[in-house]
């Protein structure tokens, strides 16, 4: 009968495993608009369901740039920030696996040899050999909540890894586009400098025959030298961008050289048009939102762990072994010893320690809920920002392209008038400078549009482009 009592207690403990002292996790609710403010063609509604996204889409392929694709492939493999996040993910998986260990009994072996003396008695020896096992019954859900917390943390680190990948990809793509725009700016300045040099020669020839003044030569020289200075200054900025790209792909600046690749006609560049979809889909696509939501689940489970500590724990212990003062007789039947029985332990007085820990866990949960909601609305804002920016920059580009067209026409007409002696060289300087400014502004707008298109796809969680224009 005495041997049956522990089994009865085990059965009671197993039946009690269904109990829990904290409520099951539910995702925080958040009201989102039915469509983006800046995407008026989007309609409908989709119920938000946060999930761990898979950011594996090669969104950058929409730009059809082999150099960019090669650099991003290297970054995905060698970037150190990605490697850190990947190691954190593996750590999260290991911790989640460790949280499941208490589901089964822990078994340990032991062996000992002790020699000692008591009072005037002679020295004596004691040898021991055996195994012991212990198992905590999950009466109040402490173990189950620890497992839930570990799994939620592992999911969060997986989303962190995806978010870091997106961040690195975004930084590299935007830096690369800035570099190509600078290459285009450099090409424009070099071409303009050649044009200004021809104008200088024309002015010198006119001076030699008495048709121009020294002032006009000085103006032409000043215009040429300023343009050459700007071209030299661009090389400094380009070098820094190239160095930044090297670091993003896990290399030293000395190991990377990117050949100059200016754009041709910037008005022919295709910009990916992303599917803005609905605001609720951000909860499914963006890894930073998924990570924040998983940390809410983790915090909720930690409350269950903290509250379970307020109640008694029931553990079952068992031991079997041998003990004797002689090695030769150690494993004989008379030297056998064993024990089996439950242990019930609970707090009596801890000066509010466990309650304070529970209150702290609840406060952490409230903070993670607020952080999750903040992440969601910040994500919606990023989409809105870039939708608006792309729309406005597209309109700017159209107007700026028109300005370039008319500036070129003004240069041709003014230079012809100058050659005919109808116009002064000051007028030529003005229209040439105006054209250079207009062309540089168009390149700048193009670079901003490229960066905004990247930012929009990242804001959407690595969205697949649906078209290009």
From TrEMBL:
InterPro entries: MdtP/NodT-like, OMP_efflux. Keywords: Lipoprotein, Membrane, Palmitate, Transmembrane, Transmembrane beta strand. One of its GO terms (molecular function) is efflux transmembrane transporter activity. It is found in: Cell membrane. It is a lipid-anchor. Pfam families: OEP. Transmembrane segments: none annotated. One of its GO terms (cellular component) is plasma membrane. Its main location: membrane. This is Efflux transporter outer membrane subunit. It comes from Methylophilus medardicus.
